[in-house]
Structure formats: C-alpha cells, structure tokens
Amino acid sequence: MTGVLLGKSRPLNAQTPLLAPILAGGLLAGVLDLAAAFALAVSRGGTPERLLQAIASGFLGRAAYSGGMPAALLGLASHFTIALGAAAVFVLASRQLRWMSSQWLLVGPLYGMVVWTVMQFIVLPLSAFPGGGAHTMKGVLTGLTVHIFCVGLPIAWAARRW
Can you point out the beta strands (E) in 27-138? Predict the structure, then answer.
C-alpha cells in the first residue's frame, strides 16, 4: 500500500487499489469544500458550528440549530460521508471509463458541477433541510465554482494520481 501512496502518478487500472484514491479524493474534497463553506459562512456573519448544524439539519430539520456540538459533529460526519461517496462514485466510474482519469482536468470540473446539481436538486429536496438551495445567480455561481475547484478537481486528481 505504501508504494501506491508514494508512487508516481498513474492512471487507474484493474490492479490499482480502490481505497487510496477514494480516501485521498474524498478527504481532500471534504476539507477544501468545508474550508470554502466556513469562509463563506464567516464572511456572512455565521460560524463554523452553525454551518455544520445546517448540514446536520438534513437529518434533524430545524432541531439541528439547537442541537449544539452534537448536531455540529453529525453535520461534520455527514459532510465527509458525502465527499467520500462522491469520490467513490468517480473512482468506480473511472475504472470503467478510462478517459475519465486521463482527461481529469476536463472531467473533474464537470464532475464538480454534477455533484453540486445532485446536491441542489435531489439531496436537499429529499432531506429535512429547512432552507432552500441556491436561489440567486450569485449563489449558483459560488456553489458551482466551489464544487469545480474544491470537489471535482481534487477527486479527479486523486483518481488519476492513484
């Protein structure tokens, strides 16, 4: 496994372990996306804890906002579960569609946009999240930009790297 983690970049093939690119891509995307979300929340007068509670509200509804740190930790776990799931989907797909990892600089941003779209139009509406999605042009552009650079590209890079 160490050779895979420290080895040179190579496209995925049938012998490449799945765990390394999924963990690397999912954790990197999770950290970058959360950092961007924290920065946006703080710039709007919010707090990281409140943002994590907003994520937890997908399960708990409005009760998440009075749930304190336990709700925030649920939000943190949910966020990374989603990021790891997005990485797993990409890595598994790139095993079947080799061009995904060879064209990662093109496919990564497109995948980031797909992830944002799925979150906005499928995940959020089916959850208990009390707010709406991005309803303004600024909100849409911000969300897409963050998902292109903080989600799609890191996941595609990790799939290419390992």
Answer: none
Contact in structure between 22 and 87 (CB atoms under 8 Å): yes
Local structure of residue 45 (DSSP, 8 states): T
Range of the domain at 149: 17-161
Tally of structural domains, the chain: 1
Give percent of the chain with pLDDT exceeding 90.
Answer: 85
Q: What are phi and psi of 55, to 5 degrees?
A: -65, -45
Helices assigned H by DSSP within 97-151: 99-102, 104-118, 124-126, 137-147
Q: How far apart are CA 124 and CA 106, in angstroms?
A: 27
94 Cβ contact partners less than 8 Å away, ≥ 6 residues apart: 12, 100, 101, 156, 159
Confidence at 132, pLDDT banded by 50, 70, 90: confident
- Distance (Å, rounded) from C-alpha 149 to C-alpha 156? 11
Q: How far apart are CA 49 and CA 47, in angstroms?
A: 5
77-130 per-position pLDDT tens digit: 999 999 999 999 999 999 999 999 999 999 999 999 999 999 999 999 999 999
Query: Looking at the domain assignment, is residue 5 inside a domain?
Result: no
